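Fold it.
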Amino acid sequence: MFGLIGHLTSLDHAKAVARRLGFDEYADQGLEFWCSAPPQIVDEITVKSLTGSEIKGLYVESCFLPEMLAGNRFKTAIRKILNAMAHAQKHGIDITALGGFSSIIFENFNLAQLLQVRNIQLDIQRFTTGNTHTAYIIVRQIEEASRKFGIDLAKAVITVCGASGDIGSAVCRWLTANTDFRELLLVARNQEKLHNLRSQLGRGKVTDLAHALPLSDIIVWVASMAKGMAINVNQLKRPCILIDGGYPKNMENTISADGIYVINGGIVEHSLDIDWKIMDIVNMAAPARHLFACFAESMLLEFEGWHTNFSWGRNQITVDKMQQIGTVSIKHGFRPLIG
């Protein structure tokens, strides 16, 4: 059995979803209540493959909210993710994907050193961040969107915002190894990590966002966007492809101009309907078919019987592993969503 650990995008979103799912005791509560709320299994899932095989899964709502990362609630955020992992393991789930902030919290706070959760010793082999499949889907979105919108990749300037992160660095490695392009611009907060990545790649230019935006034909955004931050569309080239790989995704609603094509990065479409309700709750356009690539990774691992932490640690994703997960992604009927 596979599992998915997720969270909602805000306190208001959480209240609305709780009421919809029948958790009335959660629906009228403030942040303090959600800080103490335990994880819940809120969905049972059935997925069929193009090969004819069928798997079962569970969705674990962590009850983590992004507001918990503000102020002095970091310990609460850590506890939320560890409790959700323990809940998944207690229910016998063989491989579970950490979605959204779940994987970021695990990596940033080095939770691998905190694996004892009450009477449960977490087995890391049962968990994956899903980042390898996400990175693979994003590079496929770059390739397919450039063809669709008439951008010649061989002449394109590609900017990766968040290039030093797990997904961003993997995208850069793939592009450098497999793609013919004109220039790669590397943007992130940590300059030391960026220069180390530049040395590993053997190409690319470390720069800042203000310099990169007017030069870019394709922008891959896999960094967290600071509150109140916005991209000035008047700075962007026409045409320009902007792949929003963050969570929650908001660029599609905030960026609208002729010749600017916003793609929901890291989203896949399955060839067959999935029996679940959770993607409707997070407002996917086609909830029976569309899902996060990180979630799809746990499904792929279950289909293949690879019960292992396929994606784990920071900046450990290789081009070979991206190709490996990409091959089984196609095999079982997943494809990158372009729009």
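The chain has a mean pLDDT of 92.
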